[in-house]
Write a structure and sequence with these properties.
Strand order of the largest sheet: 7-8-9-10
Number of strands: 13
Shape: globular
Number of helices: 8
Order of helices and strands: EEHHEHEEEEEHHEEHHEEEH
Strand content: 15-25%
Helix content: 25-40%
Number of domains: 2
Radius of gyration: 20 Å
Length: 276
């Protein structure tokens, strides 16, 4: 993985996949080195959390100015569509709809890192002990990737008398979820978004293709079914780890922090001396 000083980010759900910060960039410009080695064509991406799941290499290229500008305007409401649009443009080697959602954050980090190969990223955080504002400069080693299990999530599972087959969430499933929510818009208040996401990962029930509605109704019909399904799927979680240890610059307290996408993550603020 050609990531240099790029951070991990918090993965909240398969529908958005990222924690978004609406804070403005820090007023003090961060020191960022200008890249001297920039790839210009698509290259194979290594270190993907899903490993060889796709059966072929995924390829990526540096982002252009318009793509970076679009990413710098990311908000909680447009995050999913924005990231999906960028991946559609910059990632190749597999059909866009088949990209696993748990790979999306890693791929976004890879694109940013290879657009600015020698660019670091400084993130502010508040120390819980002394309440001071500190900054942490991320290094490559700060990125922790949990790889996909060697077990097959699609193995048949017997749950409360029914036979289930599961699947990993894909960008295509996110489209299915969006269409489902549109179809039940008038009664959406009675649906739980997290359970809808889980339902989209149920591929078959008793040998028949499971619609989101069918799977949702099964999940809410029994606490035992719901608990066993999420316990099974949690065993197949993978992707970029959402938190890491940071040290307070003032008191030395070690705490955990997570990263969020901010405008200056995608368009770094260069010091004047560094920009010449």
């Amino acid at each position: 993985m050609q990531i240099k000083d790029a951070p991990s980010v918090s993965v909240q759900s398969s529908s958005t996949g990222v924690t978004i910060s609406e804070k403005h960039p820090v007023k003090t410009p961060q020191k960022v080195e200008i890249s001297k080695e920039v790839i210009s064509e698509s290259v194979a991406i290594d270190g993907i959390p899903s490993k060889n799941y796709y059966g072929a290499d995924l390829y990526g290229r540096p982002l252009n100015v318009l793509e970076l500008k679009k990413l710098s305007g990311i908000t909680p409401s447009n995050a999913n569509n924005t990231i999906n649009d960028i991946l559609r443009l910059a990632i190749s080697g597999v059909e866009h709809d088949k990209i696993l959602t748990n790979d999306k954050i890693y791929l976004t980090l890879w694109l940013r890192a290879n657009t600015y190969p020698q660019s670091g990223y400084s993130v502010p955080f508040e120390c819980p002990l002394c309440q001071s504002e500190s900054n942490y400069d991320f290094k490559t080693d700060d990125i922790v990737v949990n790889e996909i299990s060697d077990k097959d999530v699609g193995d048949i599972q017997e749950i409360e008398g029914d036979i289930y087959r599961f699947k990993y969430m894909t960008i295509g499933d996110e489209t299915r979820i969006s269409k489902f929510k549109d179809s039940v818009k008038k009664s959406m208040a009675r649906y739980d978004s997290e359970i809808i996401n889980i339902a989209a990962q149920i591929e078959e029930i008793n040998g028949q293709k499971a619609t989101i509605m069918l799977a949702y109704d099964k999940l809410i019909s029994s606490p035992q079914i719901f608990s066993r399904v999420i316990s099974y799927l949690n065993g197949f979680d993978f992707g970029v780890k959402e938190t890491f240890n940071v040290t307070c610059n003032k008191c030395g307290e070690i705490t955990t922090a997570g990263l969020s996408f901010r405008p200056d993550f995608f368009i770094p603020v260069y010091r004047h001396a560094d920009a010449t």
